[in-house]
Please model this.
Amino acid sequence: MSHSLSATPQTQPPAQPAQRHGTSSGAFGDKVFAGFARGSGILVLALLGAIIVMLFVGGLKAFSTFGLGFLTDADWDPVQEIYGAAVPIYGTLVTAVLALIVSVPLAFGIAFFLTEMAPNWMRRPIGTAIELLAAVPSIIFGMWGFFVIVPFMAETVQPWMIDTLGDVPGLGVLFSGAPFGTGILTAALILAVMIIPFIAATMRDVFLTVPPMFKESAYGIGCTRWEVMRSIVLPYTRSSVVGGIMLGLGRALGETMAVTFVIGNTNRISASLFAPGNTIASLVALEFPEAPAGSLKLSSLLALGFILFVISFIVLAISRLLLRPRAVKA
Amino acid sequence: MSATLTSGASTIPGPGRDHALGARLARRRRMADRLVVVLCIGATAIGLLLLASILFTLLVRGLGGLSLGVLYKNTAPAGSNGGLANAIVGSLLQTVVGTAIGTPIGLMVGTYLAEYSRGSALGNAVRFVSDVLLSAPSILIGLFIYTLLVLPVGGYSGIAGCIALAVIVIPIVVRTTEDMLRLVPVSLREAAIALGAPKWKSIVLVCYPAARDGIVTGLLLAIARIAGETAPLLFTSLGNLNATVDFKHPATIITAFGQAMSSLPVTIYQYAGSAYQDLVDLSWVAALLITFGVLALNIVARVALRRRS
Model:
């Protein structure tokens, strides 16, 4: 912003009268305005750069103390000042992937319903309701999860899972342990609820980009709705659909408040999905108040933030590349 | 009929093979279709049920505690019949100032992308980064502002919270501004140019008004988003159970930004896990207020946009 202000007076006067007569204020205004616009654009780039640099510099002490072991060490021991990121990284990835497994089929069903099945008068209200679900603040999902879903899981879902799935050889270990209600599985379910509207809205929007002629041709030779979806719409929109799913994954990875309420907050990797755990975001939110300025603990938390940023940046970047508007083909 | 046509074309080579096979295939395809339809309706019903469950829970647990007292009394220790006034004031102040900081920047970036950057590498990079920031975890923005503005100063402050929220506002405004400016018809621009208006005047006096409804929609959505944000505020304005703003002394509105500042979301976070039932009840009231406020903003924004199109 400032560079353009200082640059314009030097370059402007000689070029001006030759090009436009009498409208020097307009041309000067043009340069200032364009400079502001360009400067703001550069500010956004600088913002991203600053986030990366500040988190990395903040985490430098932890990285240099623990080296690469920071990524693989499963201890988080404030008393002995030993910090490792393995458990929260594991929790972040597991909850996000489980959330995707639950939410993708549901989101697909909603998008399919809204684009191909619902009568016209129904599409807008239902679409808006699903989008409103995305607008609910994440801390509300946390409270709702803690006071409604956790008791439901503890009293109904988890005992049932232990009784039925717990005895399946191989799978049983996933559904073992006491039904506390909180834990990895509950966190993943809350995350799934939170990302369903994002994935569903993206899928709906990209399904609508399929040229009607393609679909009508398929209907014309007698295809059912499901066949049109499977052989026309999905192949046409495949990369955008994956992009939408990655967008949901990116959201799930960094979600903080809702997860903090329901995951149980224990720094331990357990085979059981009922076991409490933590994620990068929940650990940072909970441990931060007890991390004084300049401490190794604070540096470890910032290092965790840096790792989360790298993971979600990669996921979101892939999502954006896949969601780019389709190039017009001849 | 249709089934025999397709199957005859693709799977069964000989003409007019037995009808029974075709009928069986048609039945199976119809069944598959019907099953998918039922599953999709089920998925949609689940989605709607989840929203209904959240709203119902909020109403049942929050409505009972909602009273005028909650709105004008400040937060107080458990058992002393406190309210939410300072949290509401803090939320309003931070949301307003955060929006005021973020909106002009976002507007200019959106203008740059729509009007100036056409195809340039810088423009593509800015668009990409802005889209990534749009979905970046908000806790990281909180951590970033903490290292930038809280650590060096040595204290949490309302203004740090505002700036964290502004960082969230920028990409939202960028997205809607760019999209809406691109919808402004070329003929309008040409008319302005024909009148001899410089580019900046045609943008400010012609394109902005033409895109106004859409830009305002984006702004409302941005406000709705930051009003409910908790994670970035935990690291910046921290939350404050004491009242820092006294409306009898207007100067305190300014000085309050220099200290830790309370907000509804952070107060919910502090109270929801409390051992005292009256504080938990109060957190439900706060949750009710913030959720219905945010949803109302969303609905208004959508209605405004629909009226335009």
About this structure: Residues 97 and 249 of chain A are 7 Å apart (CA to CA). The longest helix of chain A spans residues 24-66. The two ends of chain A are 41 Å apart (CA to CA). Chain A touches chain B through 94 residues (CB under 8 Å).
